[in-house]
């Protein structure tokens, strides 16, 4: 489900759905290490610099191709999903320019890693990323559901996917992902109470709208 539109009018203390895809819909993750490198970049950028080392080595690959920056206190990652040829990030920014700086640094750094590893040149991602301001809380819940269901195109095991879903289920503790904003609203949602939806897991894996009104997987632009 991606963005209803792709305007980039950034506001302070606002939530945005960020979507980026490989050029010509090509894969941007070719093996497990690629996924782990992207996740390591997220961890370095979003972790408290006083508690996490800035430099990490992953299977012999040092992540120093691009200067390691840190956006702790500026950016909160609410949920994410890494797919073979695209990325979903649900982000809350404190400063109106934080997302611009964060995404430019993140995607540039990963592109440098990928191009050097596979001896390629040119753009890895297709054009500019899409960013949609998420204001409505019910839409925010449905968007998180969509993001966590995305891997069903490739696997039946959502928990083992490269996403924040296992964090939401309490199976993994990850300090650089803030699940509380969405789960707090889920627990207070009148819609959930009305439909007797008692767990986030059921909401993601089992619940279906009468008309699947917000099943954005039908958006062909994101395939």
Structural summary, described in words:
By secondary structure, the protein is an alpha+beta fold. It has one domain (14-214): 2-Layer Sandwich (Alpha-Beta Plaits). The protein is 32% helix and 15% strand. The chain has 7 helices and 6 strands. A 4-stranded antiparallel sheet has the order 4-5-1-6. It has a two-stranded antiparallel sheet with strand order 2-3. A hairpin with a 2-residue loop joins strand 4 (75-83) and strand 5. The model is unreliable at 1-5 and 217-223 (pLDDT under 50).
* Widest sheet: strand ordering: 4-5-1-6
* Total strands: 6
End-to-end distance: 10 Å
Average of per-residue pLDDT values: 86
The helix/strand order is EHEEEEHEHHHHH
Radius of gyration: 17 Å
What is the CATH homologous superfamily assignment? Transposase IS200-like
Query: Major sheet, described briefly?
Result: 4 strands, antiparallel
Class computed from helices, strands and strand pairing: alpha+beta
DSSP strand (E) fraction? 15-25%
Tally of separate helices: 7
CATH architecture: 2-Layer Sandwich
Assign an overall shape.
globular
Tally of separate domains: 1
Report the uncertain regions. Answer: 1-5, 217-223
Instruction: Give the CATH level 1 class.
Output: Alpha Beta
Range of helix content: 25-40%
What is the CATH topology descriptor?
A: Alpha-Beta Plaits
Short account of what is shown:
This protein is of the alpha+beta class. It is built from seven helices and six strands; from the N terminus they run βαββββαβααααα. The protein has helices at residues 32-46, 98-117, 137-149, 165-168, 180-188, 190-194, 200-205, and strands at 14-21, 57-58, 61-62, 75-83, 86-93, 130-134.
């Amino acid at each position: 489900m991606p963005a209803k539109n792709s305007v980039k009018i950034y506001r302070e203390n606002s939530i945005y759905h960020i979507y980026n895809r490989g050029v010509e819909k090509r894969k941007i993750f070719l093996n497990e290490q690629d996924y782990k490198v992207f996740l390591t970049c997220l961890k370095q950028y979003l972790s408290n610099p006083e508690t996490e080392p800035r430099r990490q080595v992953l299977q012999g690959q040092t992540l120093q191709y691009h200067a390691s920056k840190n956006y702790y206190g500026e950016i909160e990652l609410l949920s994410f999903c890494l797919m073979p040829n695209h990325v979903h990030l649900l982000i809350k920014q404190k400063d109106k320019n934080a997302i611009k700086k964060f995404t430019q640094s993140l995607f540039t750094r990963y592109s440098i890693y990928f191009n050097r590893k596979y001896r390629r040149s040119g753009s890895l991602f297709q054009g500019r990323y899409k960013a949609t301001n998420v204001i409505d809380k019910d839409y925010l819940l449905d968007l998180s559901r969509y993001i966590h269901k995305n891997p069903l195109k490739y696997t039946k095991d959502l928990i083992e996917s490269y996403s924040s879903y296992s964090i939401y289920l309490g199976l993994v503790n990850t300090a650089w992902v803030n699940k509380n904003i969405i789960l707090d609203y889920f627990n207070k949602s009148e819609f959930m109470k009305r439909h007797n939806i008692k767990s986030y897991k059921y909401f993601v894996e089992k619940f279906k709208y009468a008309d699947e009104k917000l099943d954005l997987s039908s958006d062909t632009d994101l395939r």
